[in-house]
Queue: 3 jobs
Job 1
Amino acid sequence: MTGIGTMNVNGVAIDDTFAEAFGMSGTGLVITADTMKWAMIAATTMTGFGTSVIGCGAECGIDCEVAAQDTPDGRPGVRVLIFGFSPDAILPQLKNRVGQCVLTSPGSACYNGLDSPQRLALSAGPRFFGDGWQMSKRFGGRRYWRVPVMDGEFTIEDTCGVTTDAVGGGNLLILGRDRAGLLETAEAAVAAIAKVPDVITPFPGGIVRSGSKVGSKYKGAVASTNNAYCPTLRGTAKSELDADTIAVLEIVIDGLTSQSVSDAMRVGLKAVTDIGAAKGVTRVSAGNYGGNLGQHHYHLKDYVA
Amino acid sequence: MSGLRLRLKSAPTGRLDVSCLQPAMLTAESAATVARMPFEGGALGDLFDITAAGDTGTLVLEGATATCDGIGEGMRTGALIVEGDAGAYAGRFMRGGRLDIKGSAGDYLGTGMKGGLITVGGSAGNFTGAMTPGQKFGMAGGVIRVGGDIGERAGDRMRRGTIVVKGKTGAATGSRMSGGTIWAEGGFGPGAGPLMRRGTLIGPKAEQMLATFADCGEQDMVFLRLISRFVAAELGPLAPPPLPARVRRYAGDLATIGKGELLLTG
């Protein structure tokens, strides 16, 4: 049913197709706290409800943990990435997410996490929480705000870098005949992708089970279920699935650069094919819109060793 | 291309304005060319023995005394090493580069500077990092490190930048300060921070603290880590030990808006 050429690696069919991704804007922050536990809590909270720009306003995720010696204040930190359609679209997300989720988190501080000449006013919202008691300090080329809060001070950098060369929507579709094994395999791919710098997988646990198509039969819905990949609709609607496919999981990848997304695609696909058919994975494909909408195409065949 | 060494043939008998000795400009020329450059009614070669030596972009001024004024004034790039003392106005209006004074410096060191690094092996005079008469504001960026003590009114009308002193400061440090940081390892002299609006004074003790500074109690602030790491990165082995996790904070000067602070580490 694939309808397109395939390769076979370790018992897994790889479609000769490509992931179609879009240009986006992205920024990075380093969130620190007294312990890695609390840095991670702040980071997890501020990147919550950040799966898709369509419904969440931004796509957010945790890039990596940052060792204490590598953070501006010498405390354990977590780097988060935030993606949006444009820098202007990211700014209100920064204001709300940092203001509601980082400022409020005990012992936290928030710093720029992306070197870029183009800047966003990171502190523009949160510092005014100080109600006039906020103080600015500049050390070298970096300006910080100290906002008095109930556990001392919330420290936040004045600006953060933003890039318009980011890419959103790199993806892998993993098809299989065993839902549990498929999920385990997808988890392994997400874990491998997590080691690639400058990328996130913004969906829950990095995995999407409800891939979408553009449009809907209903007015007002901009996206709807990707019926061609829904196994329960096989036989009643045009399907892209083989007869033995009972589930499809998707991994969506956002990156600060096209190269980082490409690297993530490569390690993700390798993780899947390293496990091979042992856990019920039968096939890997990728989502695209015919190649006319997204500027970035990631061909699966390029990642097959 | 190498650097240049200028050795004063004899100690000046009066004040000598050497603000024109700019590393970036002079080290781009040969020693012979520099020796022919006009200076004080004669040529540079009349007062200095000039030889090519040292790293590219580095100017060494040997034999300078406390009557040599304006050393490194307005410097933007390069390095100027003073083997001896510096007079008044050393590093005034500096925007970049590095000025190392092996001996002591006179009054108005680094006044109005906006960038770069000044280190002084000995002590510095009054009005370090302050404003010079006729100017509206004092130091607005960069770092000054003094190995000994500094005189009175350091940081007068200072806006930004960092001054680190290994010894203690004279009276009225941070007067009329509106920003920036002064960190005195040896503590502050009498009456620190008069009419201070904003900015930070850090030290183990302060003599005769002004009544217009309010005790805010002991504080644990992330900002202390930032300044410790910044100073360590800027000064390397010259940097003081990191600040303790807790300091006692005094807010002032409440005779003005009171958004400045005196942080006692002792």
Job 2
Amino acid sequence: MATSVYLSNPNVTINSVVLQDQCRSATLNYVYEQLETTSFGDTARKFGGSSVTSLQNNSIELELYQSYAASETEATIYGLVGIQTTIILAPATGAASATNPIYTLTGAYLESHTPINASLGELSTITLTFTGGTLTKAVS
Amino acid sequence: MANYLVTSARLAGYSPGDVVSDADLEGSNIDALIEAGHISTQTPKKPAKPKDIETEE
């Protein structure tokens, strides 16, 4: 049984900046909006179809450790709020392959950021949700 | 086409001191990269030519 366990080096690149060593979780949602194509005569609901193309509605959620040091998390993320950028995620670093697909979300929008998320005695983390954009998958 | 000096070790595929163009950073927000200190608009300066020193005898 083949499964994926993320224990080592997933690739997490935000706006061309490698932040994998600050990232503790990543979720990529690949979505095409559901369009109903049910018509008279149908006996069940139908969605989509070979000639119906809906809009992508993708999103990426990342949880990062916060760091205020130079060129680290806060410096990289703060300027991205309210604009579009490109996010790259892959199961591992290295070249794209069938077993290491590289997903690129181009034109992703970051609506909000929490510069301070502090609790006594705990490492500070931030959760970012990038929405929109076009997703591509490279396997070579 | 503008060139930028890489100033942090976090820019994907580049090292500090490398020069990148805006074409290399396509899809990324360059203003945010500059603001974050990953790149600079300052391109590397060429080393000054050594001046010839004439000695009088």
Job 3
Amino acid sequence: MIAFMLAQTIAITGGTVYPVSGPKIEQATVVIRDGKIAAIGTNITIPADATRIDATGKWVTPGLIDGAGQMGLVEVGAVGATREGSQRADTIAASFNVAEGLNPASLVIPVTRIEGITTTLAAPTGHLVSGQAVLIDLDGATIEEMLAQSPVGLVATLSEGAKDEAGGSRASVAERLRAVFRDALEYERRKGDFTRAQIQPLSASAADLEALLPMLHGRLPLITIANRRSDIETALRLAREFKVRLVLAGAQEAWQVAPAIASAGVPVLVQPLDNIPSYDGLGVRYENAALLARAGVKVVLLETDTHNSRNLRQQAGNAVSYGLPWDQALRAVTLSPAEAFGVADRYGSLEVGKVANVVVWSGDPFEFSTGVEHVFIRGRAIPLRSRQTELMERYRTLPPTY
Amino acid sequence: MRLAWILFLPLSLACASASGHSASQAPAPAAKPESTSVTRSQYPSTYRRHPNRPVVIRNATIMTATGQEIPNGSILLRDGRIVAVGASVEVPADAVIVDGTGKYVTPGVIDTHSHLGVYAAPGTDAESDGNEATNPVTAEVWAEHSFWPQDPQIPLAIAGGVTTIQALPGSANLIGGRSAILKLVPARTVQEMKFPGARYGLKMACGENPKRVYRSRGPSTRMGNMAGYRAAFIQAENYRQRWDKWNANHQGDPPQRDLRLESLAEVLRGNIYVQNHCYRADEMAQMLDLAREFGFQIRSFHHAVEAYKIADLLAQAGTAASIWADWWGFKEEAMDGIHENAALVQAAGGRPVIHSDDPGGTQRLNQEAAKAMYYGQRSGIPITRDQALRWFTANAAWVLGIDSLVGTLEPGKMADVVLWSADPFSVYAKALQVYNDGWLVFDRQDPAHRPRTDFELGQVPVPGVDR
């Protein structure tokens, strides 16, 4: 077992492999070496030193990526002492990067990864601009080891939740963001004047204005939470005005403006099982993901409940139930999030050279009857244990032995 | 909960934060009241069965929740009753024939823990009617008096196959008030939805929520919670004695009526079932002691995230466990949730129920039960499909005391029936048709049978059947 755990070379043989970047391959082999995918296909010479995993009759996919949540940033939802995802003070918290709030020892991580989720977003919350989200692999002893990419985007809110921090109207939310974006560009042009205090007061701190610049220069996406159709249109308008790379999140009424989103080339992050109407999204519906995809929008599927990020499988299955083709649903939890977060050169598909985040399933990953057989993160075989499996073993026979 | 990028379940959640299956030919009211504190009629049900032609669903897989799964089976519904189930059934001349080829039929879904109508969408303060958080003991409030029949979440639940719910007060209070057992049918008034003859439930809550809500005035601890329940039931015992004495001979003036104590006295008389929000194993064991002290039964614990730790005690007490498949971690007392909770409760001889406490989750209790079943099976706990089906049908009916009327597909029972597009334990299955008391209240293929609430009128574009 120890030898197995330390093996640097692994060959997963005989499974039906879904590379996502191309069509499925029956009875294929995936070779993992030094944390990367070294080979994939049907005529692969298996290295002599490889540990073989027989996946005959199994399905092999990239590890699933949940493009939402606060993995590593929250341990117990209601316990403030265990939450790290929100910076209290600033309405514009652009410089707040969550990375150093991450807890690699979080018990939520093993619970999640043994269900085939290998990578998640860790996103800041609250305010108009919440801060910088990072992408993490669900393995690693240190923050550095976990980080897949930091940052992957700035998070902003145009939903009704933001109104209180911007004067109480949607109109003032948009104006406030415009003012801050203009000030960031002004700050960049006149840093010297700013330092010498020879400039009108700007609408955010220097650190926050500075942190907006990569986004305003198109190097980092603005992940914007907007649900109402008009808010989505406002996000598109702001993105046009400032030439921002926009990613929409939530997007409950996005299906009503799908062609506009498609022609703007904006990816959309949606939670499929979302249909309870509120004044922020009276048009919310299960078919949102399918309708967007049909219009040519790049769709990323989410499970927004951090503790049940593992239910991303169920979300994807329901997206299929409500019209999204199965292949597109798999892409929407693998390669599409990798693309939306700018890491598709390393993540999201089974291709030679990519990070070896690989899952072996007993069947269709979206079906409840399917179990996870093997999980590899960066080529490491993950023990299929968590605090929950230990609780189950302890109490499966009563009374328990402590 | 709205789509929350903030990704822990917020505390505003109503509650999470805040086997008998014999056929009966002539169902009788579930509750036969003993003497009570009041004899006048109280807010009666005006539910009436909707007249319909007979329906025969043919050539489907019929999952009866009585141990049978009949391939290529048929079921006849007539006059609001299930008339026959089997390989073939009589087809009345005026019957509507439904081709069930490749499809599945189950009993209507029953949710023992719903806040539909009391925490209605669109979720503003104006619709927040589930917690009378003004006193730790509010046994005097009745969920039906908060219930809004135009809640747009109701048709969504119907589209998920739900035919009966228990609408409960929230969990802010030690004793939150009476629940309402409702047929999930389109209606103008809650009275038209009240399940005829069903007993009330009494919502009680353990643990973090009451002690958080009343931190400044008490109770502020778990021991304070216990003292609060006991003080209330001591008063109720006294109240019951005074009324029982007066009821015996009607001598002199009747005792003063007290709505709060009336509900509790009905619990002591066995006429109202206790429905107890309680997460932790040790706390559930305390509540079983409390029930023994005052001589009542706790019908079901709700949420019961740690039920598996005391599955033997629950089986001995005859108390069901209404649980989620996998919610956990949103607060300290929910940290020990495991996927095998329902399976382990079942294996110990207990009565698991999969409940929702959530307007989204109630739309897919079949999926939640599927998760709980398959995780149990993969962990080597031998759960049958029929047992897992009972988790959201027959066992739930028992929790509400209406198991002689609904919860299984047996001749004589109410025709609460769901036709599924595929195996209901598949993620790809959807309810195609939902019959409530024989009335086709939902048909995915027929716009004439897709109820919409008043709230939804006027929206352009119309979201569609998935909403």
